Automatic annotation (TrEMBL):
Range of residues in the leader sequence: none
Keyword Chloroplast set for record: no
Protein name: AB hydrolase-1 domain-containing protein
SUPFAM superfamilies noted in UniProt: alpha/beta-Hydrolases
Lineage, uppermost ranks: Eukaryota, Metazoa, Chordata, Craniata, Vertebrata
The keyword Signal is assigned to this record: no
Transmembrane segments: 20-42
Similarity field: Belongs to the AB hydrolase superfamily. Epoxide hydrolase family.
Length: 360
């Protein structure tokens, strides 16, 4: 399919690309309507049942995870929430979460790396306690990248170890490309280089199907509705089902962990901001080829239900520095929560090896 599209004139190629996007959006929307209709027929009461969640789960205020902080950046005027652990003045480790997550997805890393780093787990624009502009145009990738740059400045740092997972991984790649002077080391979990992703998805229908939610999220209001039915069943299943969830018994979500996620995403309007990130992605595609110039670690789950492992190895050609890839056996998409001890050890090893390599 991609070879055929590449051979077309520019205007025709653009038309073919957008025809694909909108056709798949329509298909995903029709599928969602059918699921909703069936749910209403079978379980009408349960379909629209939602539990009120007004009390903050205690795990979100655990002092051992760090301190809740806020910073307002100049360019947009938005107020960002983050949780910070470790002493001020230590090297900065900045953590960018994916979808549908928030700072709490990095709880294991906040505890682990505070010994040697100032660890900051950010709520991205539109997530959690960070401000959420209502207009979808405010979630373009260019704005998100500038957010991170300004937050770094506001924290009093000029550079950091940057770690991103899933959508936060996409942002981390782009920051490393656009502002290489800001990133001493790049660590990405469960997302390939953006150019690999855009080229691979056009050539592999299996990945196109796995990324169907990108297209579904282009619809107005319907994705928000689908996430709320049956008291946020889709959200629960993402982290707990046999298909997409965390499988290791010792690392599965506790009831309190799940309630933390449900509390955050059940707040009024809490889903629109995260979904608006995706509603801007096709205006930024296809991306040009860009190289990453800092040492890079890529971690991938063998059982990732959303991104195919073949993309991990293809990423290597875009890193013009030391590149390390580790595929974690039996791991799901939610790596830093699924296998936190192994992920932390791999990150420590990468950081220490790179430090030793630099000295010599």
């Amino acid at each position: 399919m991609a070879l055929f599209v590449d051979s077309l004139p520019g205007c025709v190629r653009a038309a073919a690309f957008w025809t694909l996007v909108y056709s798949y959006c329509l298909l995903c929307a029709c599928t969602a309507f059918i699921k909703l209709f069936c749910s209403i027929l079978i379980r009408p009461r349960r379909t629209f049942k939602k539990i009120s969640r007004e009390v903050t789960p205690s795990c979100l205020n655990d002092p051992f995870l760090g301190t809740h902080c806020y910073v307002r950046i100049k360019d947009s005027g938005l107020r960002f929430h983050y949780v910070a652990a470790g002493e001020r003045g230590k090297p900065l480790m900045l953590l960018l979460h994916g979808f549908p997550e928030f700072w709490y997805s990095w709880r294991h890393q906040l505890r682990e790396f505070r010994r040697e780093y100032r660890v900051v787990a950010l709520d991205l624009r539109g997530y959690g306690e960070t401000d959420a502009p209502s207009c979808k145009e405010n979630y373009k990738l260019d704005y998100i990248i500038v957010d991170v740059k300004e937050i770094l400045d506001s924290l009093g740092y000029s550079k950091c170890v940057l770690i991103g997972h899933d959508w936060g991984g996409m942002i981390a790649w782009l920051i490393a490309i656009c502002y290489p002077e800001m990133v001493t080391k790049l660590i990405v979990l469960s997302f390939p280089h953006p150019t690999v992703f855009t080229e691979y998805i056009l050539r592999h229908p299996s990945q196109l199907i796995k990324s169907g939610y990108y297209f579904f999220f282009q619809m107005p209001w319907l994705p928000e509705l689908m996430y709320t039915i049956n008291d946020y069943k889709i959200l629960k299943d993402l982290f707990t089902s046999d298909t997409t969830g965390i499988r290791r018994q010792s690392c599965r979500f506790t009831k309190e962990d799940m309630e933390a996620y449900l509390y955050i995403f059940s707040q009024p309007g809490a889903l629109s901001g995260p979904l608006n990130h995706y509603r801007n992605i096709f205006s930024c595609l296809p991306l040009k080829h860009h190289h990453v110039t800092m040492p890079t670690l890529l971690l991938w789950g063998e059982n990732d239900a959303f991104v195919e492992v073949e993309m991990a190895e293809l990423t290597r050609i875009y890193v013009k520095n030391y590149f390390q890839l580790s595929v974690l056996s039996q791991a799901s998409h939610w790596l830093q929560q699924d296998q936190p001890e192994l992920v932390n050890n791999l990150i420590w090893t990468f950081l220490e090896e790179e430090r030793f390599r630099t000295k010599n």
